[in-house]
Amino acid sequence: MSTEKLIDRKHYVLVHGVCHGAWCWYKVKPRLESAGHLVTVLDLAASGTNLKKIEDVNTISEYSEPLLQLMATIPPNEKVILVGHSLGGLNIALAMEQFPEKVAVGVFLTAVAPDIDHNASYVLEKVCFLSLDNFS
């Protein structure tokens, strides 16, 4: 690999949405890698091949644990590009909050994006209540 390629090489961390797993990035991952980038995909708690039971996941922090563990291993001089799809937006927002020095940018791909005035469940509660109102 040329020196030019190494300078432009990015590290992408792709975070799946609800009811998905790392497998959902099966077309994106090889394309980014063929362009010379490092790509990490992972299964969040109780998702994909992660063995944790959904009954044991009570908070967004617990659901995000595999991502947060990965972020803790990123070297201090490296910055990643976090990409979150769907509910994965909450996961990357949490990682961005806990590891701001390790994140170059967060990409919310048709994702839930929390704001600073409400807790993380605010958007989910609004969406769920709006959906329930449609059935009344």
TrEMBL record:
InterPro entries: AB_hydrolase_1, AB_hydrolase_fold, MES/HNL. Keywords: Hydrolase. Residues 13-121 form the AB hydrolase-1 domain. Transmembrane segments: none annotated. One of its GO terms (molecular function) is methyl jasmonate esterase activity. It holds the Pfam family Abhydrolase_1. Gene3D superfamilies: alpha/beta hydrolase (3.40.50.1820). The keyword NAD does not apply. One of its GO terms (biological process) is salicylic acid metabolic process. It comes from the Eukaryota. Coiled coil: none annotated. This is Polyneuridine-aldehyde esterase. It comes from Trifolium pratense (Red clover). The lineage of its organism: Eukaryota, Viridiplantae, Streptophyta, Embryophyta, Tracheophyta.
